[in-house]
Automatic annotation (TrEMBL):
Entry-linked InterPro entries: BUG, Bug_dom1
Lineage of source species: Bacteria, Pseudomonadati, Pseudomonadota, Betaproteobacteria, Burkholderiales
Descriptive protein name: MFS transporter
Family to which this protein belongs: Belongs to the UPF0065 (bug) family.
Length: 355
Protein backbone atom coordinates (compact mmCIF):
# COMPACT_ATOMS: atom_id res chain seq x y z
CA UNK A 1 0.00 0.00 0.00
CA UNK A 2 1.45 3.42 -0.95
CA UNK A 3 2.40 5.81 1.82
CA UNK A 4 -0.19 8.46 2.74
CA UNK A 5 0.46 11.88 1.17
CA UNK A 6 2.06 14.64 3.21
CA UNK A 7 -1.20 16.52 3.60
CA UNK A 8 -2.74 13.46 5.29
CA UNK A 9 0.11 13.35 7.79
CA UNK A 10 -0.47 17.03 8.37
CA UNK A 11 -4.18 16.56 8.90
CA UNK A 12 -3.64 13.73 11.39
CA UNK A 13 -0.93 15.71 13.15
CA UNK A 14 -3.16 18.73 13.54
CA UNK A 15 -5.97 16.54 14.88
CA UNK A 16 -3.55 14.98 17.36
CA UNK A 17 -2.55 18.46 18.55
CA UNK A 18 -6.20 19.28 19.11
CA UNK A 19 -5.94 22.43 16.95
CA UNK A 20 -4.37 24.22 19.93
CA UNK A 21 -1.09 25.29 18.35
CA UNK A 22 -0.63 28.47 16.39
CA UNK A 23 0.89 28.61 12.94
CA UNK A 24 4.07 30.12 14.43
CA UNK A 25 4.39 27.27 16.95
CA UNK A 26 3.98 24.62 14.26
CA UNK A 27 6.70 26.19 12.15
CA UNK A 28 9.16 25.64 15.03
CA UNK A 29 8.18 22.02 15.60
CA UNK A 30 10.35 19.25 14.21
CA UNK A 31 8.56 17.96 11.11
CA UNK A 32 9.98 16.91 7.72
CA UNK A 33 10.07 19.83 5.27
CA UNK A 34 7.16 18.64 3.12
CA UNK A 35 5.08 17.92 6.19
CA UNK A 36 5.81 21.35 7.62
CA UNK A 37 4.59 22.93 4.36
CA UNK A 38 1.43 20.80 4.45
CA UNK A 39 0.78 21.74 8.06
CA UNK A 40 1.27 25.40 7.30
CA UNK A 41 -1.13 25.22 4.34
CA UNK A 42 -3.81 23.45 6.36
CA UNK A 43 -3.36 25.91 9.18
CA UNK A 44 -3.78 28.86 6.87
CA UNK A 45 -6.88 27.31 5.31
CA UNK A 46 -8.37 26.66 8.70
CA UNK A 47 -7.53 30.21 9.76
CA UNK A 48 -9.12 31.61 6.61
CA UNK A 49 -12.32 29.62 7.15
CA UNK A 50 -12.45 30.74 10.76
CA UNK A 51 -11.90 34.37 9.75
CA UNK A 52 -14.68 34.19 7.14
CA UNK A 53 -17.06 32.67 9.65
CA UNK A 54 -16.20 35.32 12.24
CA UNK A 55 -16.62 38.02 9.60
CA UNK A 56 -20.08 36.70 8.69
CA UNK A 57 -21.06 36.66 12.37
CA UNK A 58 -20.31 40.39 12.63
CA UNK A 59 -21.77 41.21 9.19
CA UNK A 60 -22.90 43.86 8.59
CA UNK A 61 -20.98 46.27 10.80
CA UNK A 62 -21.36 49.25 8.44
CA UNK A 63 -23.89 50.27 5.74
CA UNK A 64 -24.50 47.99 2.75
CA UNK A 65 -24.82 49.63 -0.67
CA UNK A 66 -27.52 48.17 -2.96
CA UNK A 67 -26.89 49.41 -6.51
CA UNK A 68 -29.79 49.72 -8.97
CA UNK A 69 -29.13 50.10 -12.70
CA UNK A 70 -32.28 52.13 -13.31
CA UNK A 71 -33.52 55.61 -12.44
CA UNK A 72 -35.60 56.13 -9.27
CA UNK A 73 -39.30 55.31 -9.48
CA UNK A 74 -39.25 52.32 -11.85
CA UNK A 75 -40.11 48.72 -11.01
CA UNK A 76 -36.52 47.74 -10.21
CA UNK A 77 -36.05 50.74 -7.95
CA UNK A 78 -39.33 50.13 -6.10
CA UNK A 79 -38.45 46.45 -5.61
CA UNK A 80 -35.00 47.38 -4.31
CA UNK A 81 -36.32 49.87 -1.77
CA UNK A 82 -39.05 47.56 -0.48
CA UNK A 83 -36.58 44.72 -0.03
CA UNK A 84 -33.84 46.94 1.43
CA UNK A 85 -36.10 48.18 4.20
CA UNK A 86 -37.01 44.65 5.32
CA UNK A 87 -33.45 43.36 4.91
CA UNK A 88 -32.06 46.14 7.07
CA UNK A 89 -34.43 45.10 9.85
CA UNK A 90 -33.52 41.41 9.57
CA UNK A 91 -29.76 42.03 9.41
CA UNK A 92 -29.84 44.74 12.09
CA UNK A 93 -27.93 47.04 9.78
CA UNK A 94 -28.31 49.83 7.27
CA UNK A 95 -28.87 49.43 3.52
CA UNK A 96 -28.51 52.38 1.16
CA UNK A 97 -30.07 52.15 -2.32
CA UNK A 98 -27.88 53.84 -4.94
CA UNK A 99 -29.17 54.43 -8.48
CA UNK A 100 -26.62 54.18 -11.30
CA UNK A 101 -28.76 54.15 -14.46
CA UNK A 102 -27.54 53.98 -18.03
CA UNK A 103 -26.30 51.66 -20.79
CA UNK A 104 -29.03 49.09 -20.18
CA UNK A 105 -27.87 48.50 -16.55
CA UNK A 106 -24.26 47.93 -17.64
CA UNK A 107 -22.93 50.96 -15.75
CA UNK A 108 -24.26 49.59 -12.47
CA UNK A 109 -23.20 46.02 -13.24
CA UNK A 110 -19.66 47.07 -14.11
CA UNK A 111 -19.39 49.13 -10.92
CA UNK A 112 -20.47 46.24 -8.70
CA UNK A 113 -18.26 43.74 -10.55
CA UNK A 114 -15.22 45.90 -9.72
CA UNK A 115 -16.19 46.45 -6.08
CA UNK A 116 -14.58 44.74 -3.10
CA UNK A 117 -16.02 41.24 -2.51
CA UNK A 118 -16.89 41.89 1.11
CA UNK A 119 -20.69 41.88 1.03
CA UNK A 120 -21.00 45.65 1.34
CA UNK A 121 -21.69 46.39 -2.34
CA UNK A 122 -24.54 44.45 -3.92
CA UNK A 123 -26.48 44.73 -7.16
CA UNK A 124 -30.23 44.64 -7.69
CA UNK A 125 -30.06 42.71 -10.96
CA UNK A 126 -32.84 41.71 -13.31
CA UNK A 127 -33.42 39.94 -16.61
CA UNK A 128 -31.06 42.45 -18.24
CA UNK A 129 -28.11 40.65 -16.62
CA UNK A 130 -28.87 37.60 -18.78
CA UNK A 131 -29.99 39.47 -21.90
CA UNK A 132 -26.99 41.82 -22.11
CA UNK A 133 -24.54 38.93 -22.41
CA UNK A 134 -25.62 38.51 -26.03
CA UNK A 135 -27.22 41.87 -26.74
CA UNK A 136 -23.98 43.82 -26.23
CA UNK A 137 -20.95 42.80 -28.28
CA UNK A 138 -18.58 44.35 -25.73
CA UNK A 139 -18.99 44.25 -21.96
CA UNK A 140 -16.31 45.05 -19.40
CA UNK A 141 -17.67 42.40 -17.04
CA UNK A 142 -18.64 38.73 -17.23
CA UNK A 143 -22.17 38.01 -16.02
CA UNK A 144 -21.15 34.57 -14.75
CA UNK A 145 -17.52 34.89 -13.64
CA UNK A 146 -17.68 38.37 -12.07
CA UNK A 147 -20.70 37.87 -9.83
CA UNK A 148 -21.74 35.67 -6.94
CA UNK A 149 -25.46 34.76 -7.19
CA UNK A 150 -27.05 35.56 -3.83
CA UNK A 151 -30.82 35.33 -4.24
CA UNK A 152 -33.64 35.61 -6.75
CA UNK A 153 -36.63 37.07 -4.95
CA UNK A 154 -39.41 38.10 -7.36
CA UNK A 155 -40.78 37.75 -10.86
CA UNK A 156 -43.01 40.18 -12.78
CA UNK A 157 -44.80 38.78 -15.84
CA UNK A 158 -45.48 40.93 -18.89
CA UNK A 159 -48.88 41.40 -20.49
CA UNK A 160 -49.65 41.37 -24.21
CA UNK A 161 -51.58 44.62 -24.69
CA UNK A 162 -53.31 46.04 -27.76
CA UNK A 163 -55.14 49.18 -28.79
CA UNK A 164 -58.84 48.59 -28.01
CA UNK A 165 -59.78 49.68 -31.54
CA UNK A 166 -57.79 46.82 -33.07
CA UNK A 167 -60.35 44.12 -34.05
CA UNK A 168 -58.77 41.32 -32.01
CA UNK A 169 -59.77 39.63 -28.75
CA UNK A 170 -57.22 36.84 -28.37
CA UNK A 171 -53.68 35.80 -29.21
CA UNK A 172 -54.98 33.78 -32.15
CA UNK A 173 -56.90 36.82 -33.44
CA UNK A 174 -53.79 39.00 -33.35
CA UNK A 175 -51.67 36.37 -35.11
CA UNK A 176 -54.36 35.90 -37.77
CA UNK A 177 -54.64 39.67 -38.25
CA UNK A 178 -50.89 39.94 -38.68
CA UNK A 179 -50.86 37.21 -41.30
CA UNK A 180 -53.83 38.70 -43.14
CA UNK A 181 -52.28 42.18 -43.19
CA UNK A 182 -48.53 41.58 -43.70
CA UNK A 183 -46.37 44.55 -42.77
CA UNK A 184 -49.25 46.54 -41.28
CA UNK A 185 -48.74 45.82 -37.58
CA UNK A 186 -46.14 47.48 -35.40
CA UNK A 187 -45.27 47.11 -31.74
CA UNK A 188 -43.74 49.47 -29.20
CA UNK A 189 -41.14 48.85 -26.52
CA UNK A 190 -39.17 50.68 -23.84
CA UNK A 191 -36.16 50.71 -26.15
CA UNK A 192 -34.10 48.63 -28.53
CA UNK A 193 -32.89 45.53 -26.73
CA UNK A 194 -35.36 45.86 -23.85
CA UNK A 195 -37.22 42.76 -22.68
CA UNK A 196 -40.37 44.24 -24.27
CA UNK A 197 -38.57 44.45 -27.60
CA UNK A 198 -37.32 40.88 -27.35
CA UNK A 199 -40.75 39.64 -26.21
CA UNK A 200 -42.25 41.16 -29.34
CA UNK A 201 -39.61 39.52 -31.52
CA UNK A 202 -40.24 36.15 -29.87
CA UNK A 203 -44.00 36.56 -30.36
CA UNK A 204 -43.49 37.29 -34.07
CA UNK A 205 -41.29 34.21 -34.47
CA UNK A 206 -43.75 31.89 -32.76
CA UNK A 207 -46.77 33.41 -34.49
CA UNK A 208 -45.22 33.41 -37.95
CA UNK A 209 -46.17 36.98 -38.88
CA UNK A 210 -44.41 40.28 -39.45
CA UNK A 211 -44.58 43.42 -37.31
CA UNK A 212 -42.34 46.48 -37.16
CA UNK A 213 -40.58 47.32 -33.91
CA UNK A 214 -40.90 50.94 -32.75
CA UNK A 215 -38.58 51.71 -29.81
CA UNK A 216 -39.37 54.44 -27.28
CA UNK A 217 -37.44 55.87 -24.34
CA UNK A 218 -39.18 54.02 -21.55
CA UNK A 219 -42.34 52.04 -20.80
CA UNK A 220 -44.59 55.09 -20.34
CA UNK A 221 -44.19 56.46 -23.90
CA UNK A 222 -44.41 52.90 -25.27
CA UNK A 223 -47.82 52.52 -23.59
CA UNK A 224 -48.91 55.98 -24.75
CA UNK A 225 -48.07 54.94 -28.32
CA UNK A 226 -50.45 51.98 -28.13
CA UNK A 227 -53.19 54.07 -26.51
CA UNK A 228 -52.83 56.72 -29.22
CA UNK A 229 -52.74 54.24 -32.08
CA UNK A 230 -49.12 54.87 -33.06
CA UNK A 231 -48.42 51.22 -32.18
CA UNK A 232 -50.74 48.23 -32.31
CA UNK A 233 -49.42 46.12 -29.45
CA UNK A 234 -46.76 45.89 -26.78
CA UNK A 235 -45.54 43.74 -23.89
CA UNK A 236 -45.52 45.62 -20.56
CA UNK A 237 -45.55 44.54 -16.93
CA UNK A 238 -48.61 44.66 -14.68
CA UNK A 239 -47.66 47.62 -12.44
CA UNK A 240 -47.25 49.91 -15.45
CA UNK A 241 -50.49 48.91 -17.17
CA UNK A 242 -53.11 47.66 -14.70
CA UNK A 243 -54.95 50.97 -14.28
CA UNK A 244 -54.90 51.61 -18.03
CA UNK A 245 -56.50 48.21 -18.62
CA UNK A 246 -59.14 48.81 -15.96
CA UNK A 247 -59.98 52.21 -17.48
CA UNK A 248 -60.42 50.67 -20.93
CA UNK A 249 -57.53 52.54 -22.53
CA UNK A 250 -55.73 49.26 -23.23
CA UNK A 251 -56.93 45.73 -23.91
CA UNK A 252 -55.03 42.79 -22.40
CA UNK A 253 -55.00 39.66 -24.54
CA UNK A 254 -52.71 37.44 -22.46
CA UNK A 255 -50.12 37.21 -19.74
CA UNK A 256 -46.67 35.96 -20.76
CA UNK A 257 -46.05 33.66 -17.81
CA UNK A 258 -46.34 29.96 -16.97
CA UNK A 259 -49.57 30.47 -15.01
CA UNK A 260 -52.20 33.10 -14.31
CA UNK A 261 -51.29 35.86 -11.90
CA UNK A 262 -53.35 36.77 -8.79
CA UNK A 263 -53.30 40.51 -9.55
CA UNK A 264 -55.02 39.92 -12.92
CA UNK A 265 -56.73 36.52 -12.52
CA UNK A 266 -59.05 36.91 -15.51
CA UNK A 267 -56.27 37.37 -18.05
CA UNK A 268 -55.34 33.98 -19.62
CA UNK A 269 -51.78 32.88 -20.27
CA UNK A 270 -50.24 32.65 -23.72
CA UNK A 271 -50.02 28.87 -23.25
CA UNK A 272 -53.74 28.61 -22.55
CA UNK A 273 -54.26 30.17 -25.96
CA UNK A 274 -51.98 27.75 -27.76
CA UNK A 275 -48.64 29.58 -27.69
CA UNK A 276 -46.13 27.75 -25.49
CA UNK A 277 -42.73 28.88 -24.17
CA UNK A 278 -43.67 32.55 -24.08
CA UNK A 279 -42.52 33.23 -20.54
CA UNK A 280 -40.98 36.68 -20.82
CA UNK A 281 -41.24 37.73 -17.21
CA UNK A 282 -38.81 40.13 -15.60
CA UNK A 283 -37.08 38.64 -12.57
CA UNK A 284 -35.41 40.47 -9.72
CA UNK A 285 -32.33 39.29 -7.87
CA UNK A 286 -29.36 40.17 -5.69
CA UNK A 287 -25.79 39.48 -6.85
CA UNK A 288 -22.48 40.26 -5.16
CA UNK A 289 -18.96 40.64 -6.57
CA UNK A 290 -17.24 37.31 -7.29
CA UNK A 291 -15.17 36.13 -4.35
CA UNK A 292 -17.61 37.29 -1.68
CA UNK A 293 -17.18 34.85 1.25
CA UNK A 294 -19.71 32.02 1.15
CA UNK A 295 -20.82 32.55 4.78
CA UNK A 296 -21.82 36.12 3.87
CA UNK A 297 -23.58 34.95 0.70
CA UNK A 298 -25.49 32.36 2.73
CA UNK A 299 -26.39 34.91 5.40
CA UNK A 300 -27.71 37.32 2.78
CA UNK A 301 -29.66 34.59 1.01
CA UNK A 302 -31.28 33.52 4.26
CA UNK A 303 -32.19 37.13 5.05
CA UNK A 304 -33.68 37.76 1.58
CA UNK A 305 -35.77 34.59 1.76
CA UNK A 306 -36.90 35.50 5.26
CA UNK A 307 -37.91 38.95 4.03
CA UNK A 308 -39.95 37.53 1.17
CA UNK A 309 -41.82 35.29 3.60
CA UNK A 310 -43.15 38.29 5.52
CA UNK A 311 -46.91 38.53 4.75
CA UNK A 312 -46.94 42.33 4.53
CA UNK A 313 -43.98 42.48 2.12
CA UNK A 314 -45.38 39.63 0.00
CA UNK A 315 -48.64 41.53 -0.35
CA UNK A 316 -46.82 44.72 -1.35
CA UNK A 317 -45.00 42.83 -4.10
CA UNK A 318 -48.14 41.03 -5.26
CA UNK A 319 -50.08 44.31 -5.39
CA UNK A 320 -47.32 45.64 -7.66
CA UNK A 321 -47.74 42.65 -9.97
CA UNK A 322 -44.67 40.77 -8.76
CA UNK A 323 -44.61 37.15 -7.61
CA UNK A 324 -42.37 36.64 -4.54
CA UNK A 325 -39.71 33.92 -4.72
CA UNK A 326 -37.39 32.28 -2.18
CA UNK A 327 -34.59 30.14 -3.60
CA UNK A 328 -31.02 29.07 -2.79
CA UNK A 329 -27.85 30.53 -4.33
CA UNK A 330 -27.35 27.21 -6.16
CA UNK A 331 -30.82 27.45 -7.71
CA UNK A 332 -30.19 31.03 -8.78
CA UNK A 333 -26.81 30.13 -10.31
CA UNK A 334 -28.39 27.46 -12.54
CA UNK A 335 -31.37 29.70 -13.29
CA UNK A 336 -29.05 32.49 -14.48
CA UNK A 337 -27.12 30.09 -16.73
CA UNK A 338 -30.39 28.83 -18.23
CA UNK A 339 -31.66 32.38 -18.75
CA UNK A 340 -28.44 33.43 -20.50
CA UNK A 341 -28.80 30.49 -22.89
CA UNK A 342 -32.51 31.13 -23.51
CA UNK A 343 -32.13 34.83 -24.20
CA UNK A 344 -29.06 34.20 -26.36
CA UNK A 345 -31.26 32.23 -28.74
CA UNK A 346 -33.95 34.92 -28.76
CA UNK A 347 -31.48 37.76 -29.34
CA UNK A 348 -29.65 35.92 -32.11
CA UNK A 349 -32.86 34.97 -33.91
CA UNK A 350 -34.17 38.52 -33.69
CA UNK A 351 -30.82 40.05 -34.78
CA UNK A 352 -31.28 42.65 -32.03
CA UNK A 353 -28.20 44.65 -31.06
CA UNK A 354 -27.44 47.96 -29.40
CA UNK A 355 -23.72 48.23 -30.26
Amino acid sequence: MPAPPAWMHGFLAIRAMGYTHTTKEMLHMKFPGSLKVALLGLSLLAGSAHAQSASADKYPDHPIKLVVGYAPGGGNDVAARLLAKELASILHGSIVVENRPGAGTNIAASYVARSAPDGYTLSLSSTALAVNVTLYKKLDYDAVKDFEPVAIFAEAPNLLLVNPKLPVNSVADLVAYGKKHPGKLNFSSAGSGSTQHLAGELFKQKGGFEATHVPYKGSAPALTAVIGGEADFTFINIPSSKQLIESGQLKALAIASAKRFPAVPNIPTMAEQGMNDMNVSTWYSIVAPAGTPQPIVDKLNKAVNQAMEQPELRKRFEDLGMAPMAESPAFFKKFLADEIARWRTIVQQSHASVD
